Amino acid sequence: MRGPSLTFRPTFHKYANEPCGGVHIHVTSPLAFRPVATYIAAIAIARDLAPEAFRFRTEPYEFIENPPAFDLLTGSDDARKAILAGASAQELIHLVCPPDPGYAEVHARSVERVARLADEAARQPLHYEAS
């Protein structure tokens, strides 16, 4: 998996025509890719990069006000609370994607790989396009 930073300008919704920063995820090994672990780590990195600005969505999601959207997507409030408490990417991966006992060794290597990529990404400078 590779994930170069990029700047883009959405064409609609609240950030229409404003420069936004992001990461383009390019999966190089589909069988080894762990999407939930990868994105939960990315959310932890976003929190680490700008803790004062980091917020979860509070508006209704799919016409449901409670529980919050993130809790609906992750199945409980555990991940959201752990992120807000400052859990590391690796701690979050274990919380949200617990290992299958039959694949413990594979899982351990995968968690290490995703955590390493998350750490590397967090150390990369952010590049924003000038307005």
Number of self-contained structural domains: 2
Beta-strand portion reads 5-15%
Mean pLDDT: 81
Biggest sheet record? 2 strands, antiparallel
In N-to-C order, the SSE pattern is EEHHHHH
Number of helices: 5
> Helix fraction?
40-55%
- Number of DSSP E strands: 2
Measured on Cα atoms, how large is the radius of gyration? 16 Å
Broad shape: globular
Low-confidence stretches: none
- Euclidean distance between termini CA atoms: 30 Å
The structural class is mainly alpha
Strand order, biggest sheet? 1-2
Structure described in brief:
This protein has 131 residues and is mainly alpha-helical.
Q: How would you characterize this protein structure?
A:
The chain is mainly α and 131 residues long. It is 43% helix and 6% strand. The longest helix has 20 residues, at 104-123. The protein is globular, with a radius of gyration of 16 Å. The two termini are 30 Å apart.
